[in-house]
Amino acid sequence: MRQNLHMRLAGPGDAPAIGVLARRVVRRWILPEQPAEAAGPLLAGMSARAIRRKMADGQRFHLAFVGDVLAGVVAIREDSHVFQLFVGTRYQGRGIARKLWRRVLTDSVRRAGTRYFTLNAAIGAVPVYLRLGFEPNASAKVPRSKLVTVPMIYRVRAPRHRHGPLR
Protein backbone atom coordinates (compact mmCIF):
# COMPACT_ATOMS: atom_id res chain seq x y z
CA MET A 1 0.00 0.00 0.00
CA ARG A 2 1.45 3.38 -1.03
CA GLN A 3 1.59 5.93 1.76
CA ASN A 4 0.52 9.33 0.38
CA LEU A 5 3.03 11.21 2.60
CA HIS A 6 3.66 14.92 2.32
CA MET A 7 5.37 17.39 4.65
CA ARG A 8 5.21 21.11 5.29
CA LEU A 9 6.10 23.76 7.82
CA ALA A 10 3.34 24.39 10.38
CA GLY A 11 1.55 27.65 10.94
CA PRO A 12 -0.44 28.93 13.95
CA GLY A 13 -3.64 27.36 12.59
CA ASP A 14 -2.03 23.91 12.93
CA ALA A 15 -1.47 24.30 16.70
CA PRO A 16 -4.67 22.49 17.83
CA ALA A 17 -3.93 19.42 15.67
CA ILE A 18 -0.28 19.36 16.75
CA GLY A 19 -1.38 19.48 20.39
CA VAL A 20 -3.83 16.59 19.95
CA LEU A 21 -1.22 14.41 18.26
CA ALA A 22 1.52 15.28 20.76
CA ARG A 23 -0.66 14.66 23.82
CA ARG A 24 -1.85 11.29 22.45
CA VAL A 25 1.68 10.10 21.79
CA VAL A 26 2.95 11.39 25.14
CA ARG A 27 0.13 9.73 27.09
CA ARG A 28 0.68 6.40 25.30
CA TRP A 29 4.45 6.21 25.05
CA ILE A 30 6.15 8.68 27.41
CA LEU A 31 4.09 9.23 30.57
CA PRO A 32 4.06 5.56 31.66
CA GLU A 33 7.82 5.76 32.29
CA GLN A 34 7.73 9.19 33.99
CA PRO A 35 7.01 10.25 37.57
CA ALA A 36 3.35 11.22 38.05
CA GLU A 37 4.22 14.86 38.77
CA ALA A 38 5.78 15.23 35.30
CA ALA A 39 2.47 14.84 33.45
CA GLY A 40 0.94 18.26 34.14
CA PRO A 41 3.86 20.46 33.04
CA LEU A 42 4.62 18.26 30.03
CA LEU A 43 1.06 18.22 28.72
CA ALA A 44 0.56 21.95 29.41
CA GLY A 45 3.39 22.71 26.99
CA MET A 46 1.40 20.93 24.28
CA SER A 47 -1.70 23.09 24.38
CA ALA A 48 -2.62 25.01 21.23
CA ARG A 49 -1.88 28.28 23.05
CA ALA A 50 1.59 27.07 24.13
CA ILE A 51 2.38 25.83 20.62
CA ARG A 52 1.30 29.13 19.02
CA ARG A 53 3.50 30.99 21.56
CA LYS A 54 6.46 28.75 20.62
CA MET A 55 5.87 29.49 16.94
CA ALA A 56 5.73 33.22 17.67
CA ASP A 57 9.08 32.85 19.46
CA GLY A 58 10.61 31.42 16.27
CA GLN A 59 10.41 27.74 17.05
CA ARG A 60 9.69 25.69 13.92
CA PHE A 61 7.27 22.78 13.63
CA HIS A 62 7.46 20.52 10.59
CA LEU A 63 4.47 18.31 9.90
CA ALA A 64 4.01 14.98 8.10
CA PHE A 65 0.62 14.08 6.67
CA VAL A 66 -0.62 10.77 5.34
CA GLY A 67 -3.35 11.90 3.00
CA ASP A 68 -5.02 14.68 4.96
CA VAL A 69 -4.28 13.17 8.41
CA LEU A 70 -1.53 14.65 10.60
CA ALA A 71 0.74 11.66 11.20
CA GLY A 72 3.84 13.26 12.75
CA VAL A 73 5.54 16.41 13.95
CA VAL A 74 9.10 17.49 14.65
CA ALA A 75 9.79 20.76 16.47
CA ILE A 76 13.06 22.62 16.89
CA ARG A 77 14.24 25.77 18.61
CA GLU A 78 17.29 27.86 17.76
CA ASP A 79 17.82 25.58 14.74
CA SER A 80 19.63 23.10 16.99
CA HIS A 81 17.49 21.67 19.81
CA VAL A 82 14.80 19.16 18.89
CA PHE A 83 12.08 19.26 21.53
CA GLN A 84 9.40 17.16 19.86
CA LEU A 85 9.53 14.27 17.43
CA PHE A 86 6.23 12.43 17.54
CA VAL A 87 4.58 10.04 15.13
CA GLY A 88 1.03 8.88 15.75
CA THR A 89 0.85 5.28 16.96
CA ARG A 90 -0.96 3.99 13.87
CA TYR A 91 1.73 5.51 11.60
CA GLN A 92 4.80 4.29 13.47
CA GLY A 93 7.17 1.91 11.70
CA ARG A 94 6.73 3.56 8.28
CA GLY A 95 9.86 5.72 8.26
CA ILE A 96 7.97 8.93 9.05
CA ALA A 97 10.17 9.85 12.03
CA ARG A 98 13.28 9.43 9.85
CA LYS A 99 11.77 11.62 7.11
CA LEU A 100 10.77 14.31 9.60
CA TRP A 101 14.24 14.21 11.16
CA ARG A 102 15.90 14.53 7.74
CA ARG A 103 13.65 17.47 6.91
CA VAL A 104 14.46 19.44 10.08
CA LEU A 105 18.16 18.56 9.79
CA THR A 106 18.32 19.78 6.18
CA ASP A 107 16.29 22.90 6.96
CA SER A 108 18.44 23.87 9.97
CA VAL A 109 21.75 23.22 8.23
CA ARG A 110 20.59 25.26 5.22
CA ARG A 111 19.09 28.12 7.26
CA ALA A 112 21.63 28.40 10.08
CA GLY A 113 24.62 26.21 9.24
CA THR A 114 23.85 24.03 12.26
CA ARG A 115 26.73 21.63 13.06
CA TYR A 116 25.13 19.67 15.91
CA PHE A 117 21.66 18.99 17.28
CA THR A 118 20.63 18.17 20.84
CA LEU A 119 17.55 16.66 22.40
CA ASN A 120 16.39 15.13 25.66
CA ALA A 121 15.01 11.70 24.83
CA ALA A 122 12.40 9.84 26.79
CA ILE A 123 13.85 6.51 27.91
CA GLY A 124 11.70 4.49 25.50
CA ALA A 125 12.68 6.70 22.55
CA VAL A 126 16.45 6.27 22.95
CA PRO A 127 16.63 3.32 20.48
CA VAL A 128 14.81 5.40 17.85
CA TYR A 129 17.23 8.29 18.24
CA LEU A 130 20.23 5.95 18.14
CA ARG A 131 18.96 4.62 14.78
CA LEU A 132 18.69 8.24 13.55
CA GLY A 133 22.37 8.80 14.36
CA PHE A 134 22.15 10.49 17.77
CA GLU A 135 24.38 9.39 20.62
CA PRO A 136 24.17 9.91 24.38
CA ASN A 137 25.61 13.29 25.36
CA ALA A 138 27.44 12.76 28.63
CA SER A 139 28.70 16.34 28.70
CA ALA A 140 25.22 17.88 28.53
CA LYS A 141 23.59 19.42 31.54
CA VAL A 142 20.53 17.42 32.51
CA PRO A 143 17.54 19.78 32.38
CA ARG A 144 16.02 20.67 35.74
CA SER A 145 12.58 19.20 35.42
CA LYS A 146 10.49 16.38 36.71
CA LEU A 147 11.00 14.44 33.46
CA VAL A 148 13.42 11.55 33.26
CA THR A 149 15.34 11.98 29.99
CA VAL A 150 18.58 11.06 28.28
CA PRO A 151 20.47 14.02 26.76
CA MET A 152 21.57 13.15 23.22
CA ILE A 153 23.54 14.81 20.43
CA TYR A 154 23.81 14.48 16.67
CA ARG A 155 26.95 15.82 15.03
CA VAL A 156 26.62 16.90 11.41
CA ARG A 157 29.39 15.41 9.33
CA ALA A 158 31.36 17.74 7.12
CA PRO A 159 30.38 17.36 3.47
CA ARG A 160 32.71 15.20 1.41
CA HIS A 161 34.26 16.71 -1.65
CA ARG A 162 34.27 14.41 -4.67
CA HIS A 163 37.45 15.80 -6.15
CA GLY A 164 39.52 16.40 -3.05
CA PRO A 165 40.28 19.72 -1.38
CA LEU A 166 40.12 22.94 -3.32
CA ARG A 167 43.48 24.44 -4.24
Question: How would you characterize this protein structure?
Answer:
Helices cover 32% and strands 26% of the residues. The chain is α+β, with helices and mostly antiparallel strands and 167 residues long. The chain has a single domain, classed as Gcn5-related N-acetyltransferase (GNAT) (Aminopeptidase, 3-Layer(aba) Sandwich). A seven-stranded mixed β-sheet has the order 1-2-3-4-5-7-6, sandwiched between helices. β2 and β3 form a beta hairpin.
**Radius of gyration over C-alpha positions, nearest whole angstrom:** 16 Å
Regions with little confidence, pLDDT below 50 for 5+ residues: none
Between the first and last Cα atoms, what is the distance in angstroms?
A: 50 Å
> For the largest beta sheet, what order do the strands appear in spatially?
1-2-3-4-5-7-6
Query: Quick one: how many beta strands?
Result: 7
Number of domains in the coordinates? 1
CATH class: Alpha Beta
Following the backbone from N to C, one meets helices and strands in this order, namely: EHHHEEEHEHEE
Strand fraction: 25-35%
- What class, by secondary structure content? alpha+beta
- What is the overall number of helices? 5
CATH topology annotation: Aminopeptidase
> Overall pLDDT, averaged?
91
Corresponding CATH architecture: 3-Layer(aba) Sandwich
Name the CATH superfamily assignment.
Answer: Gcn5-related N-acetyltransferase (GNAT)
Largest sheet: 7 strands, mixed
Helix content: 25-40%
Shape: globular
